């Protein structure tokens, strides 16, 4: 039999378009062809298990080989094969049924992935790297005649009998000039490792040398010899495809190491396994996060029936879950479509919700079963939980039971427990409960100490997400405000009915204010006289909570550019009840007055970590002269 014909498409010559347009992503040709080989093998296995194929399955290893001289790459399988009729039907027609649409749409598509799958062009991706493609195939059906198909990248093909005697299909690519990089062992190995590492049928690529036991030497020690064995590049049975009941912790950890050989051990993991209403399997690992958000992203690998698709799962899992590692495998995620389409897809939404729920359930369970261990891991989990809460309402609902607030004394409380703990003592005269927090225990030490001396509790919010989390908590908790310990003097942060009275007259107060303004001489420092306890600091420098939050947001690119441009404004609270202030007032020596005011102010700056450079030098000099 010999036949020539034209591939049934309306467009004159589609291959140059494919080739040119898809050039950047052309390595996926191998993924497509190996996937077809795997499908053909799996189909035969299924027929065999259904009793529709009674022959011997034999070794079904798929083989990838290349010939540098002949400039060919060959993908051989021992699957169902095709008859000439089937080649005509599947290769010539089916693959191009969407061709007209393709030609219209290809201009919009952004990468090869989008086109290849969307238009069923899997096989034709071969033409991205080949000038000519040949198929040699023998169907599994009894008495089938082997067929040969050749196409040189134009729309015409040639089909004839082949002398192939073994079942299955060989696809031979005659690699074009621009794609000769693929005629290279290391490059092919790299692509196979990327896309085919967990395919369910063994894939052989050349051979490798290993050592095998070879009896004993004269001294009775074991001997080894080198042997050449098939180089099988894939693990056909990765952990996520197994039943959770069949896996031990070691298996999960071993699989983690297989995926990320250099990563630290994960904290724990979740095995996803669902059939209905969508099919999804996978294992998600919780890594140790350690505050380095960005490094952690893009670690989840997306597979479809064990074929690697991408590690950009941005639109499939919620943003905060991007911090997780591991794999998800779902044939129900529409793969090769545009991102905006993905977001609107109902399966994708369901999958995303499902994963979110699973993760929340797992965390809830850990918290319930072993709170101590949960607290110990909080440094890593906390960031993740808070990120989840501020970004996903559904997650927040569940997580509000186990999100922990950590105090500066390293104690942990749930939201409920904490509210209970501080509800009386930290209630102000307006009936608001004030949560005090620190973001830097070293820098804010003097403020923390003052608050603790008063019997107040101080939370620690020192992770990158805490700025957002603080606003979130405030929104979600009624009649509760969060204030950083250094955002004002304490009795302004939590105002009580029985607040201290100022021991100074209005006149004295005014005099002190003027004196300090003169001593400080800084436009961004606003002086105010406050009535604090005698044992509190004589001068305190603070930055307003609102102002600081806006500035923080501007710094993080949160759109508060206006605030970002403002200078850092501080409030200088002079404690009118402090003995030092009285001493300054009563002193008759103008120089001493100014010196003491400067000294008290510098001490306040010093305890905020704001005293540097020439000012610090002057302070040290002045201090020396004071103790002289
Ligand atoms: N190695 C093979 N053995 C047997 N049949 C094959 C082989 N490769 C391709 N085919 C047949 O050709 C058809 C078209 O293949 P093609 O890769 O273009 O599309 P697909 O595999 O159906 O879909 P896609 O690759 O886009 O997911 C296949 O459905 C299959 O019937």
UniProtKB/TrEMBL annotation:
Keywords, sorted A to Z: ATP-binding, Chaperone, Nucleotide-binding
Domain of life: Bacteria
Residues annotated as domain Histidine kinase/HSP90-like ATPase: 25-179
InterPro entries in alphabetical order: HATPase_C_sf, HATPase_dom, HSP90_C, Hsp90_fam, Hsp90_N, Ribosomal_Su5_D2-typ_SF
Family the entry assigns: Belongs to the heat shock protein 90 family.
NCBIfam families xref list: PRK05218.1
Name of the protein this chain belongs to: Molecular chaperone HtpG
Organism phylogeny: Bacteria, Pseudomonadati, Bacteroidota, Sphingobacteriia, Sphingobacteriales
């Amino acid at each position: 039999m010999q036949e020539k014909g034209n591939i049934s498409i309306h467009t004159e010559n589609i291959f140059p378009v494919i080739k040119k347009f898809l050039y950047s992503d052309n390595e996926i040709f191998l993924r497509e062809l190996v996937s077809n080989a795997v499908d053909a093998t799996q189909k035969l296995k299924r027929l065999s298990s259904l009793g529709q194929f009674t022959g011997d399955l034999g070794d079904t290893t798929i083989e990838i080989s290349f010939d540098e001289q002949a400039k060919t790459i060959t993908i051989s399988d021992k699957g169902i094969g095709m008859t000439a009729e089937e080649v005509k039907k599947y290769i010539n027609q089916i693959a191009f049924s969407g061709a007209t649409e393709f030609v219209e749409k290809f201009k919009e598509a952004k990468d090869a992935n989008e086109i290849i799958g969307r238009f069923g062009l899997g096989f034709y991706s071969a033409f991205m790297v080949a000038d000519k493609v040949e198929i040699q195939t023998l169907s599994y059906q009894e008495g089938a005649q082997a067929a040969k198909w050749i196409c040189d990248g134009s729309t015409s093909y040639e089909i004839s009998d082949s002398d192939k005697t073994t079942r299955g299909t060989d696809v031979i690519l005659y690699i074009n000039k621009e794609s000769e990089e693929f005629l290279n062992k290391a490059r092919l190995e790299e692509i196979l490792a990327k896309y085919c590492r967990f395919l369910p049928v063994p894939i052989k690529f050349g051979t490798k040398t290993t050592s095998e036991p070879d009896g004993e030497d004269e001294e009775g020690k074991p001997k080894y010899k080198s042997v050449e064995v098939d180089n099988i590049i894939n693990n056909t049975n990765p952990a996520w495809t197994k039943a959770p009941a069949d896996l031990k912790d070691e298996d999960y950890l071993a699989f983690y190491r297989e995926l990320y050989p250099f990563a630290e051990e994960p904290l724990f993991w979740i095995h996803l396994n669902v059939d209905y209403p969508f099919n999804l399997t996978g294992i998600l690992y919780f890594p140790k996060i350690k505050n380095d958000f960005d490094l952690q992203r893009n670690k989840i690998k997306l597979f479809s029936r064990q074929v690697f698709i991408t590690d950009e799962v941005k639109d499939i899992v919620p943003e905060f879950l991007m911090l997780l590692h591991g794999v998800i495998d779902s044939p129900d995620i529409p793969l090769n479509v545009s991102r905006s389409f993905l977001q609107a897809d109902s399966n994708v939404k369901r999958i995303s919700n499902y994963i979110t729920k699973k993760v929340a359930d797992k965390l809830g369970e850990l918290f319930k079963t072993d709170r101590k261990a949960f607290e110990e891991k909080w440094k890593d989990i906390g960031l993740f939980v808070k990120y989840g809460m501020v970004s996903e309402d559904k997650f927040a609902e569940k997580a509000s039971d186990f999100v922990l607030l950590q105090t500066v004394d390293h104690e942990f409380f749930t939201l409920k427990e904490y509210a209970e703990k501080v509800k009386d003592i930290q209630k102000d005269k307006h009936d608001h409960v004030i949560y005090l927090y620190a973001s830097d225990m070293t820098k804010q030490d003097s403020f923390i100490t003052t608050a603790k001396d008063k019997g107040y509790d101080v939370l620690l919010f020192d992770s990158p997400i805490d700025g957002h989390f603080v606003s979130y908590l405030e929104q979600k908790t009624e009649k509760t405000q969060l204030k950083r310990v250094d955002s004002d003097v304490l009795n302004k942060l939590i105002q009580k009915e029985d607040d201290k009275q100022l021991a100074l007259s209005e006149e004295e107060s005014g005099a002190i204010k003027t004196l300090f303004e003169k001593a400080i001489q800084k436009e961004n420092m606003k002086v105010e006289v406050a009535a604090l306890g005698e044992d509190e600091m004589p001068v305190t420098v603070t930055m307003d909570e609102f102002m600081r939050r806006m500035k923080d947001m501007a710094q993080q690119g949160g759109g508060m550019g206006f605030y970002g441009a403002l200078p850092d404004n501080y409030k200088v609270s002079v404690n009118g009840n402090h003995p030092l202030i009285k001493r300054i007032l009563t002193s008759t020596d103008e120089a001493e007055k100014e010196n003491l005011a400067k000294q008290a102010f510098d001490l306040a700056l010093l305890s905020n970590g704001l005293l540097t450079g020439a000012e610090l030098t002057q302070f040290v000099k002045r201090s020396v002269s004071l103790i002289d």
